[in-house]
Design goal:
The chain is of the alpha+beta class. Helices cover 35% and strands 24% of the residues. The strands form 5 sheets. Strands 3, 4, 5, 6, 7, 8, 9, 10, 11, 12 and 13 form an 11-stranded mixed β-sheet that branches. Strands 14, 15, 16, 17, 18, 19, 20, 21, 22 and 23 form a 10-stranded antiparallel β-sheet that branches. Helix 16 crosses helix 17. The protein starts with a strand and ends with a strand. It holds the Pfam family Homeodomain. This is Homeobox domain-containing protein. GO terms for molecular function: DNA binding; DNA-binding transcription factor activity; lipid binding.
Length: 849
């Protein structure tokens, strides 16, 4: 292929500057090789190219520069054309989906109008005094309907233990599933925030006024139907709550389809309720229009069919006709319809936990949307659209995420057949449950943990776990705080002991220190899902020694961490933070012993104003009197309730079992207390029964408060807390701590970004943090652009005059929430020798936007 380019040469080279230069195929090949390595070569590289390639000797460097510019332009146009084609294809398919949804809604409206007219007619004729027999005909019609219903179960007397009977059940399940997926069998309501579009997850709906709970989703994926079916059938790969799926029988159907008898075990999400299992029939077949469908329903005494395997550790739940319909899309790809409809037997759990088993929103997020997201993730990985760091393949990173979730679920559930057994408490308290597992080869399944998991000194795994109830603390906010402020709850010595399970040398069992986390953490991202609802990362904990005897703690440690559900806009989303110690090598088959937190929303309801509610509740009392406490709400009339599940795992040997158990109980108790303090910090509210954090009483704090008060009086001529300047330091500290305005101190450094060093209770509430985590917050990240400009313009005045007033503005809390204030006063805090110590800020009349 000849490429023509305008080439203007100088006259001394003898070429007409008005003619085109024809690049030979050899020249184009040489330039393309360079373009592959470097699409935008420097001037030095272009001159070097001419010297090294004799075939380019008659081309000027400037003309080569033009060639690369044109080549980049063509590449950009090609990519843009491909992108527009993809978007156009998605829009066409989405338009088709929306037209079908519109047709379904029109049918539903017509049906409702018909039912409304029929009910009006019945009411009119039933209340009338006419002499016709309309009322009698209604009664007769009802009797006929009852007779039909009484005759209907006759088909259940069929022999459902043979292939013909199972095929009859399968065909009925298929018809009912299709009526849910594309018809009006269920009154679907679109979920908030799930707007259809070419880049959205799809159209997501939940059921209203139906038996059980149900969710439906339909979307576009760039995979062929059979590949989509293969992915969705592998339920363990995308459903994190699925423990195992056993196919006990496969029966070919006469129409080319396949019938499978499947036993599925699910994890319980908390320690407060038993796990669920399903005994189902799954039917896979192709429809006449070329669509592929997989439907599934439970086999019960009502439907007939063989009995499923018994299990005393599980509660048998019912799956109503559910499944997925996959239709080929014009131009490639598939349109996927997913329906989940289950009855989880909510009455078998404590009343306070029932919303978890009665919420279609939670079902949609955990199952329906999760399935569609997983297929989309695989599709984008297959097309090369997803980039991962660290040189890891996407499948390996997904395996790490699955291992973390499964290991945490195994710890929370503690199944006997996995080798778990309870360990009694020596102190008589039952708030923390401790279990041990002495069969590491069986622990977590052979595909996740091998017999070589424990080092030579270890003989088992110990798990300490607890659950607590929170009110008015959004799960996403809490988990994000736990992730970003590990120092608020973690103990470095305990982390070091957990990391020692990866080494073959013994390690002393530590004593948990309150706030014992002097190290810094560095979060290194590894991977994230397409919609950023889940991300995998490596956390490096910088080593620190408390004393010369603790030099074993001074080495850096690494955690593999999975965080999910931190988007506050997701309705019904569960938030989770799970991590496990790893070594520096971090092999693909590295064993993992996960620990972490799971926060699940239970309910969100409105109640009359003026009711009082607690931020954190004692779970035992909540289970005993859940009806009374469930009616409480905050002053704003809303009640957010969520359950937090905590589980931490440690290795032990025969000589340290009791000491490790004691340490684990103490550690989890301290974490429960830390979460209560964190809940108070990130969700401040009037009238809480939990006392606010106590003011620091160290000599340094007393001195700092005295400097703050004296400097304010010296610079402004007014007293910060009143007219009495002879007040004791203890009284000044109490007055500053309870001051109604937010008062914060910021470091005064010229060679580094200023960070906050101290704040009163109101200041901590405004920044949604605590005193320890406060030191991680920088001033320039808190103020918005106008606030930073105002501070910079007033800074010379502050240094000369000692103080300045900043206008009203907006700042940002550590949780990302915007805070407005009417005025801010800034002044220099002077030490006793009149040297500059820090800057003090007072934000007046602040409120969350």
């Amino acid at each position: 292929m000849m490429v023509h380019t305008m080439h203007r040469e100088s006259p001394d080279k003898g070429l007409d500057s008005g003619k085109y230069v024809r690049y030979t195929p050899e020249q184009v090949e040489a330039l393309e090789r360079v373009y592959t390595e470097c699409p935008k070569p420097s001037s030095l590289r272009r001159h070097q190219l001419i010297r090294e390639s004799p075939i380019l000797s008659n081309i000027e460097p400037k003309q080569i520069k033009v060639w690369f510019q044109n080549r980049r332009c063509r590449e950009k146009q090609r990519k843009e054309a491909a992108r527009l084609q993809t978007v156009n294809r998605k829009l066409n398919a989405m338009n088709k989906l929306l037209m079908e949804e519109n047709d379904r809604l029109q049918k539903q409206v017509s049906h409702l109008v018909y039912e409304n007219g029929r009910m009006k007619h019945q009411l009119h004729t039933a209340s009338g005094t006419t002499t016709d027999n309309s009322c009698e005909s209604v009664v007769v019609s009802g009797q006929q309907h009852q007779q039909q219903n009484s005759n209907h179960p006759q088909h259940l007397q069929r022999d459902a233990n043979n292939p013909a009977g199972l095929l009859s059940i399968a065909e009925e399940a298929l018809a009912e599933f299709l009526s849910k997926a594309t018809g009006t069998a269920v009154d679907w309501v679109q979920m908030i925030g799930m707007k259809p579009g070419p880049d959205s997850i799809g159209i997501v709906s939940i059921s209203r006024n139906c038996s059980g709970i149900a969710a439906r989703a339909c979307g576009l994926v760039s995979l062929e139907p059979m590949k989509v079916a293969e992915i969705l059938k592998d339920r363990q790969s995308w459903l994190r709550d699925c423990r195992c799926v056993d196919t006990l029988s496969v029966i070919p159907a006469g129409n080319g389809g396949t019938i499978e008898l499947i036993y599925t075990q699910m994890y319980a999400p908390t320690t407060l309720a038993a796990a669920r299992d399903f005994w189902t029939l799954r039917y896979s077949t192709c429809l006449e229009d070329g669509s592929y469908v997989v439907c599934e329903r439970s086999l019960t005494s009502t439907t007939g069919g063989p009995n499923g395997p018994p299990s005393s550790s599980f509660v048998r739940a019912e799956m109503r006709p559910s499944g997925f319909l996959i239709r080929p899309c014009d131009g490639g790809g598939s349109i996927v319809h997913i329906v989940d409809h289950v009855d989880l037997d909510a009455w078998s759990v404590p009343e306070v936990m029932r919303p978890l088993y009665e919420s279609s929103k939670i079902l949609a997020q955990k199952m329906t949307v999760a399935a569609l997201r997983h297929v989309r993730q695989i599709a984008q990985e297959t097309s090369g659209e997803v980039q991962y760091g660290g040189g890891r393949q996407p499948a390996v990173l997904r395996t790490f995420s699955q291992k973390l979730c499964r290991g945490f679920n195994d710890a929370v559930n503690g199944f006997v057949d996995d080798g778990w057994s309870p360990l009694g408490s020596n102190d008589g308290a039952e708030d923390i449950s401790v279990m041990i597992n002495l069969s590491p080869g069986k622990f977590g399944g052979p595909s996740h943990y091998g017999s070589s998991f424990l080092p030579s000194f270890g003989s088992g795994v110990l798990c300490a776990k607890a659950s607590m109830l929170l009110e008015n603390v959004p799960p996403a906010v809490l988990v994000r705080f736990l992730r970003e402020h590990r120092s608020e709850w973690a103990d470095y010595g305990v982390d070091a002991y957990a990391a020692a399970s990866l080494r073959a040398s013994p390690f002393a069992v530590p004593c948990a220190r309150a706030g014992g986390f002097p190290s810094n953490q560095v979060i290194l991202p590894l991977a994230q899902t397409v919609e950023h609802e889940e991300f995998l990362e490596v956390v490096r904990l910088e080593g620190h020694a408390y004393s010369p005897e603790d030099m074993g703690l001074a080495r850096d440690m690494y955690l593999l961490q999975l965080c999910s559900g931190v988007d506050e806009n997701v309705v019904g989303g569960c938030a989770q933070l799970v991590f496990a110690p790893i070594d520096e090598s971090f092999a693909d088959d590295a064993p993992l012993l996960p620990s972490g937190f799971r926060v699940i929303p239970l309910e969100h309801k409105s109640t009359p104003n003026g009711a009082s509610g607690n931020r954190t509740l004692d779970l035992a009392s909540a289970l005993e009197g859940s009806t009374r406490q469930g009616s409480e709400a905050g002053p704003n009339g809303c009640n957010f309730r969520s359950v937090v599940t905590i589980a931490f795992q440690f290795t032990f040997d025969n000589h340290t079992r009791d000491s490790v158990a004691s340490m684990a109980r103490q550690y989890v108790r301290s974490i429960v207390g830390s979460i209560q303090r964190v809940a108070l910090a990130i969700a401040p509210r009037p009238g809480s029964s939990i006392s606010p954090m106590s003011a620091p009483t160290s000599p340094e704090a007393l001195t700092l408060v005295r400097w703050i008060s004296r400097s304010y009086r010296v610079h402004t001529g007014a007293d910060l807390f009143g007219s009495d300047s002879q007040t004791s330091d203890d009284t000044l500290l109490r007055q500053l701590w309870s001051h109604t305005d937010a008062i914060l101190c910021c470091s005064l450094k010229t060679n580094a970004s200023p960070v906050f060093t101290f704040a009163n209770q109101t200041g901590l509430d405004m920044l949604e943090t605590t005193l320890v985590a406060l030191q991680d917050i920088m001033l320039d990240k808190t103020l918005d652009e106008s606030g930073r400009k105002a501070l910079c313009s007033e800074f010379p005045k502050i240094m000369q005059q000692g103080y300045a007033h900043l206008p009203a503005g907006v700042c940002e809390s550590s949780m990302g929430r915007l805070v407005s204030y009417e005025q801010a006063t800034v002044w220099k805090v002077l030490e006793d020798d009149e040297s500059n110590h820090c800057l003090a800020f007072m934000f007046v009349n602040w409120s969350f936007v």
